[in-house]
Write a structure and sequence with these properties.
The complex is a heterodimer of chains A (about 220) and B (about 300).
Chain A lengths: L1 E9 L5 E10 L4 E5 L6 H8 L7 E6 L2 E2 L8 H6 L1 E4 L11 H12 L3 H14 L15 H13 L5 E5 L7 H16 L3 E5 L3 H5 L4 E6 L2 E5 L4
Parallel strand pairs in A: 3-8, 3-9, 6-7, 7-8
Antiparallel strand pairs in A: 1-2, 1-4, 4-5, 9-10
Helix pairs in contact in A: 3-4, 3-5, 4-5
Chain B lengths: L1 H21 L1 H34 L6 E5 L5 H13 L3 E7 L1 H12 L2 H5 L9 E6 L4 H12 L4 E6 L2 H42 L1 H9 L4 H44 L11 H26 L7
Antiparallel strand pairs in B: 1-3, 1-4, 2-3
Helix pairs in contact in B: 1-9, 2-7, 2-9, 7-9, 7-10, 9-10
Classes of the chains: A alpha/beta (about 220), B alpha+beta (about 300).
């Protein structure tokens, strides 16, 4: 589903964010991407979402070489990808419903279909009944869950999350992680970047550890 | 499919209107700037057109007078006048025989006593010719033909000033058209700049939309509608300005016309012209927004 082959990413100024990263994530797999901040976790996810392009090496997503995806094809590509952000990236001048509906509206879904899917997604994250709330009136944890619902609503094959528990207390963090594990059970491929090693170690899933741009360990290759 | 597409457009339009309504003062100012830029050339054009139609109503200015030689008998002159009237390039003629002319001159001028002192009638038979066409060349052609008649003493043409006025009007129209073209560009720039600011204000929203897969067309659409709304609002205000101005000028112009013993009323914008104005405003707004989005939307990439 996701494959990195000897991927390098060098930012202007000469800093290597990623240096020779190789790994692959099968369909239906859930993996945590761990490592200290600055290790290149975010960069790796940004390469998957085509927010950035690798300096060298190949990134394949859904068996497609991302280097061959032209700029104007990126929107379509992202429509099949669920992305969860640490800072939620919600539209604060719109309701919870409109936020979750956004990817569906973009994809041109029918009104009734949008209605159904938004409710289903909000139900999954435990926010059914808050459709008309303004995001700003929600707690950080709730806002994060709105962001997750938005990523889920179009039913993506792949979901990537960058520090989804970064601003949450341990209890909420564990809850969000359990939520991800549940999506995985229904077949979604997930790659979740987090520095919360303690939390991750309690879970039975694969762990990729990045340090200074290199893949230091992969729990699947033991 | 089509319904969904239309739905997206309707949504963009409603969104644009809501955004404009949220800051009515700023919207009004922008619309007013656009309105003035539109109303100025259109108003001048209306003025020029009015002067043009006024000069057109002076068709009689193309008339000229043929004075026959005094030795030509009135009967011969009358026959000639019938021949002239039969010409294809002559609309009508008015023959004034010397006796009638003398009578009228005596009655009007107050030189009755002086005329009595003369042995015979000093006035010639005259013919007032109205050419079929008012164009300067055609008038000149008829005059030249009549000048060649052996019985003609003098052909008095007084169309020079009309030709000059027409030329001036032509020049004025050209100048107004050029000004209109420049101000149209100005309208597009005003809208474009407003849209550019809007894009800057909404950069986070654009970034998020791009992140969840929004296409360029999807992101551009609300801004294009915003541009169209600005253009339309500006054009509508321009129409109001023009109507108000014409209404204010209507009465004085009527009074002035009455003093010149003509009946003349200002012609404003027809319904079709107003429609064209609104359409043109919308088009300019759209063009300005398109320019702004083409230039600035790309700059807002997810970071």
């Amino acid at each position: 589903m996701i494959r990195f082959e000897n991927v390098h990413k060098r930012y202007p100024g000469g800093r290597d964010a990623l240096a020779g990263v190789t790994f692959s994530l099968e369909r239906g797999e859930l993996a945590f991407l761990t490592g200290p901040s600055g290790a290149g976790k975010s960069t790796l996810l940004r390469l998957i979402a085509l927010i950035e392009r690798p300096t060298r090496g190949t990134v394949l997503v859904n068996n497609r070489n991302t280097a061959r995806i032209a700029r104007r094809k990126i929107p379509r590509f992202r429509q099949r990808l669920g992305i969860v952000f640490q800072d939620h990236k919600l539209l604060y001048d719109r309701s919870v419903f409109d936020n979750v509906a956004l990817p569906l509206v973009i994809a041109g879904a029918r009104r009734r279909e949008i209605d159904k899917r938004v409710r289903a997604a909000l139900d999954q994250v435990g926010l059914l009944g808050r459709e008309s709330s303004a995001p700003i009136t929600l707690s950080t944890g709730e806002q994060q869950r709105v962001g997750i619902a938005r990523a889920l609503a179009p039913r993506p094959d792949v979901l990537i999350a960058d520090e989804p528990t970064g601003n949450l207390d341990p209890e909420l963090s564990a809850e969000v992680m359990r939520l991800f594990a549940r999506f995985n059970e229904v077949g979604v491929t997930l790659l979740i970047a987090t520095h919360d090693l303690e939390l991750v170690q309690q879970m039975p899933h694969r762990r990729l550890r990045l340090v200074a741009g290199r893949l230091e360990s992969d729990s699947a290759r033991k | 499919m089509i319904r969904r597409y239309l739905g997206l457009h309707l949504q963009s339009l409603v969104d644009a209107l809501r955004r404009l309504g949220r800051q009515p003062f700023a919207t009004l100012l922008t619309a007013l700037v656009i309105a003035i830029a539109i109303a100025l050339p259109v108003g001048l054009r209306v003025l020029v057109n009015n002067v043009g139609s006024l000069s057109g109503s002076w068709q009689s200015a193309a008339d000229f007078t043929v004075y026959f030689k005094r030795e030509v008998p009135t009967e011969r002159a009358r026959a000639l006048s019938r021949e002239v009237a039969a010409r294809a390039d002559v609309a009508s003629v008015q023959f004034i025989d010397r006796a009638a002319a003398l009578k009228e001159f005596r009655a009007r001028s107050g030189f009755g006593a002086a005329l009595d002192a003369l042995d015979d009638n000093p006035l010639p038979d005259t013919l007032v010719v109205r050419p079929a066409s008012g164009a300067a060349g055609d008038v000149e052609g008829v005059a030249a033909a009549l000048r060649k008649l052996p019985e003609t003493d003098l052909v008095q043409l007084d169309t020079q000033w009309v030709a000059r006025l027409r030329a001036m009007l032509k020049l004025a129209r050209r100048i107004v058209d050029l000004a209109a073209a420049l101000l149209a560009i100005a309208v597009a720039i005003v809208v474009g700049n407003t849209i550019r600011l809007e894009i800057q204000n909404r950069a986070p929203e654009i970034e998020i939309t791009k992140l969840v897969g929004g296409t360029d067309a999807f992101i551009r659409r609300p801004f294009l509608y915003l541009g169209v709304c600005y253009g339309l609002a500006g054009a509508a205000l321009a129409c109001l300005l023009l109507f108000a101005t014409l209404a204010a000028l209507g009465a004085p112009v009527r009074d002035l016309a009455a003093l010149y013993e003509t009946r003349f009323a200002l012609t404003g914008l027809s319904l079709r012209e107003s429609g064209a104005l609104l359409g043109g405003g919308a088009l300019l707004g759209w063009a300005g927004a398109l320019l702004a989005t083409a230039r600035h939307l790309r700059a807002v990439e997810p970071r």
